Amino acid sequence: MQFVFYVIFAAAVVLADQLTKALVVANIPLGGHAAFLPGFLDFTYVRNTGAAFSSFEGMQWLFALIFLVFTLGIIYEYFCKRMPFTGFERWMIAAIYAGGLGNMIDRLRLGYVVDMIETQFMEFPVFNVADCFITCGCIALFVSLGLFNKEFWKEEKK
Predict the structure, then answer these.
(1) d(CA 83, CA 88)
(2) pLDDT tens, the chain, 158 aa long
(3) In angstroms, what is the C-alpha Rg of the chain?
(4) Would residue 156 count as lying in a domain?
(5) Residues acting as catalytic residues
(6) pTM, rounded to two decimals
(7) Structurally, how many domains does the chain consist of?
(8) Do the domain assignments include residue 155?
């Protein structure tokens, strides 16, 4: 039953991601800017054919393969061989997956990912809502696994 809640959460994240991307595409010309929080955040419509910092540009097949492996890994882990993740860690995995799905939808539908959030207070690549969930989910997952989930690191006794 818990799996259903993860799916609903992931669907909500994907919906929020796709809606923000659609709003930006409809209202800001490619390369254009719109002030959101002046001096802090702007909306800038950018097309990204790569991954973080435009790495692996044009390698859509690689992103699709990674996403497929991640999907199969989640299904296998949840339904076949449960690992000792905490509830919080499972929510973070759902956040990471949702972000990946939001970007994968763009890659399959458009051939690129729509990015729109630009920081004004520091030099950083333009990103999107999905990227926020991937990044924050990864950081929180690794902190939780590294500092709080001792069960995860125990060796299985044979």
Answers:
(1) 13
(2) 788 999 999 999 999 999 999 999 999 999 999 998 998 999 999 999 887 666 677 777 888 899 999 999 999 998 898 898 999 999 999 999 999 999 999 999 999 999 999 999 998 999 999 999 999 999 999 999 999 998 888 876 55
(3) 17
(4) no
(5) 115, 131
(6) 0.89
(7) 1
(8) no
